[in-house]
Amino acid sequence: MTDSAPLILLIEDEEDIRDAVATLLEMEGYRVAQCINGEDAWTWLRLHPRPGLVLLDLMMPVMDGQAFLAKLSQERMLEGVPIIVLSGSPFRPPGAVAYLRKPVAVDPLMEVVRRFLPSSGEGPEGPPTS
Length: 130
Description:
Helix content is about 35%, strand content about 20%. By secondary structure, the chain is of the alpha/beta class. Strands 2-1-3-4-5 form a 5-stranded parallel beta sheet. It is globular. It starts with 6 loop residues before the first strand and ends in a 14-residue tail after the last helix.
């Protein structure tokens, strides 16, 4: 994987889910930065380049996903960056381009990620079409 691979910021407090999703994304050719809650992610964002996509859990300690989205809308730090919510909650917050209900299956997750952030590992013709 190269530094030119698309970067995804994964914000998830459950370590097993975070590790599984990160491993899957890395196998698909993405770079993944992992944060355990919204506050952790906010600190990361101030110190690193903008990600191409954010995967956000809603229910987390310290700063939950909804508080993170509210702060993002005030600060406008990630304008234009797609945010995909992964949550067990049925609530789809404003500011998210997509919502996937946990437990998330591999195919729907990868389909939505590829839709908003094509992997550099794909051929010149892009993702397969159906």
